[in-house]
Amino acid sequence: MTDISHENVPSRARRRFPGISSRAYEHPADRSALVALRRLTGFDTVFKALSGLLPERSLRLLFLSDSVRVSEAQFAHLHDMLRDACYILDLEKVPPMYVKQDPQPNAMCIGMDEPIIVVTTGLVELLDEEEMRAVVGHEVGHALSGHSVYRTILLFLTNLAVKVAWIPLGNVAIMAIVTALREWFRKSELSADRAGLLVGQDIQASMRGLMKIAGGNHLHEMNVDAFLAQADEYEKGGDLRDSVLKILNVLPRSHPFTTVRAAELKKWSETRDFQRIMDGHYPQRDEDKDASVSDSFRESASHYADTVRTSKDPLMKLVGDIAGGAGDLGGKLRDKFTGGGGGAKGGAGGSATTDGGGSPEGPQNPEEGPRKA
Predict the structure, then answer these.
(1) What 3-state DSSP class applies to 98?
(2) What pLDDT digit, counting tens, does each position of 193-217 carry?
(3) Which of 256, 250, 243, 248 is nearest to 191 (CA)?
(4) Prediction pTM value
(5) Using CA atoms, how far apart are residues 350 and 342, in angstroms rounded to an integer?
(6) Which residues form the catalytic set?
(7) Which is more confidently placed, 319 or 106?
(8) How far apart (Å, rounded) are the C-alpha atoms in residues 29 and 35?
(9) Euclidean distance between CA atoms 194 and 201, whole angstroms
């Protein structure tokens, strides 16, 4: 990593956030999932063991030897974006960035001691300048939040799980931690998307980038409002069978579904919290040591309560009904699983929870656990 030379940072008409803490943009589900991950049986042991064993030096040599390092001489436009993103988020050192030949659009931030950012040629070729700026800010957000450490462990354990899959029960313990890490990292992606918006400061560019990742470089064939409508349709999801399928579909993934990311980011961009950051009011990094853990827990608990209360997902609506002491639970379960409408036992109380309508928008699955990139 190299020190930032601020006088050479490209001039941008964008707000800078001196001393900003990652707490300013971290999604409550990200923080809660990380707490749950650290409480997972065996995780501390694995983490301590791997911290000194992971071949980070080998990883750095691999990218140095088989990728293109971004600099003033190579991919200069990415170099400017990276320095600009670090300047805006006030990251003291600029992480090394590499461009890797791979047609699949992807980016990651890895490293145990110091983060490394890697972007694929597929991503570089797909996105325009402002869309790419949001992605670079996304990865710098991962670096500022310290996500690269857990991402590196996840990569290592995923590979290890494949190698020991033939050993009876040898894969079970590893996959439990891998599954928890994946869940946390999916949550952390929502935080990094917010960091990308703070760097790019262009919600339309962020939306376009996510649409392109989902549907390719065909913007003339796509529409942001229609794309966000897909997220709403996905969340409503029909009946409980669809809710279960959603969980099964997302478990092996490293990222949340793209429409869900777009909807979450758009929602956050319209909140008072985002506006306060843009106005210069945000938690400071030098206050992190004094931050209240109990306040973080309360914020996370409030987030999950709001998620259950406002979600359109059938499973989350049922959880809300149970928490609220709704009557005729058997009838509600029957209707939820069969997609049945009104007419359930219990009169109006039964039909009100099976029509799937009337609830304001809410975030995605509030399960605790780690997320992956």
Answers:
(1) strand
(2) 999 999 999 999 999 999 999 999 9
(3) 256
(4) 0.71
(5) 7
(6) 139
(7) 106
(8) 10
(9) 10
Residues 6+ apart with CB under 8 A from 89: 17, 20, 137, 140, 141, 144, 195, 198, 199
Which residues fall within 8 angstroms of residue 199, CB to CB, at 6 or more apart?
14, 84, 85, 88, 89, 133, 134, 136, 137, 138, 140, 141
Convert the pLDDT of each residue in 230-273 to its tens digit: 988 887 765 556 556 656 666 666 678 899 999 999 999 999 99
CA-based nearest residue to 204, from 123, 262, 118: 262
Half-sphere exposure of 207 (CA within 13 A, CB side): 19
Q: How many CA atoms lie within 13 A of 370 on its CB side?
A: 26
Whether residue 308 contacts residue 316, with contact meaning beta carbons closer than 8 Å, is answered with yes
Quick one: tokens of 232? Answer: 């709403």
The alpha helices in the chain, defined as continuous H runs, are 28-39, 43-51, 56-66, 76-88, 121-126, 129-145, 148-163, 170-200, 203-215, 224-236, 240-250, 258-269, 272-278, 293-310, 314-323, 329-338, 348-351
The strand pair at 97-100 and 116-120 is best described as parallel
Radius of gyration of the chain (CA): 22
| Residue showing tokens 């691999």 | 62
Full DSSP string of 105-132: --EEEE-SSS-EEEEEHHHHHHS-HHHH
CB 332 within 8 A of CB 239: no
